[in-house]
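Batch manifest, entry 17 of 40.
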Amino acid sequence: MVDDSALMRKLIPQILARDPDIEVVGTAMDGEFGLKKIEDLNPDVVTLDLEMPRMDGMETLRQITRRFRVPVIIVSALSTEGATATFKALAMGALDFVAKPRDAASAHMDEIAEDLIKKIKVASRTRIKNTIMPDLMDRGKPNKPLARPRVEPTRIIAIGVSTGGPNALEYLLAQLPGDFPGTIIVVQHMPEGFTEMFARRLNANCAIDVKEAQSGDLLIAGRTLICPGDRHIKVRRMPLASTVVLSDEGRLNGHRPSVDVLFRSVAADFGPRVIGVLMTGMGDDGAAGMGLIKDAGGLTLAQTEDSCVVFGMPKAAIERGFAMRVVSLDLLASTLVHQCNPDRIAKEQKVQMEL
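Output type: structure tokens
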């Protein structure tokens, strides 16, 4: 682990020592020492702080991705600046992140213990691929419509994603046109406090509108709603305008937000109008819900293994027979545009009426 805080260099190894399968082989107080330790000790996973003297975490990460094929998990400050730096680090090749509690006392570190242990274990089994996406902040301004009418969407697209998700979602949403006729609801496994910054980043760099969801937000064409961290998100179908509803119900299979909660809700309220998508991520959250979408007459898509950072979530749905199509990340945007095309939908409905 690489962290300039002596307290963190003490507490994190104590946390990880709870799991007999994890051994902390070395610690370093800054990036320069960290790179030497990585070269000498050849670890399976590196945890990395971003705010350090001499060589900071961003430059350290740049050097790690250039010189070593080792997964990196960012241990990030829970702040606006920390969130911004974290998303840049993910775009540069970091595998995942955990948020430091605001009070790094021993009792508060317990809050991230289970998450950190789980992510380190997944990282140790993850083969580093060339999945680094171009940083959207470096692209030109997107061609957003000057005014977006509140039009009912042709399709309700529900997306579940976890490890590797921030990069994959950026790649996907940046390819959708400003006049995209569907609406998108995203459950990304992410801590509270990071989803708002993530939504702002996406909105600034995508032609469609992206925002962190609030209860009562309308489901309208050309909009993406990101579920806030530590909340569940559901839909409510209404005669004049359908909305999303946030809830503080308990965790489902260890998750809040849970993809299964969203998928179950959209299947019940919108049935055949739903497109359920499972993208890169660990675990099986969303697999059962995808089965409900399929049973309700919706379309279900899973990301291909070769384009995932971690194949867990799509794999779980595929193995259960719930994914109707398996689509590579680079073809996912065009697939959604095709499926949401109003002329295509009208022709399908006409054929069904004639049968």
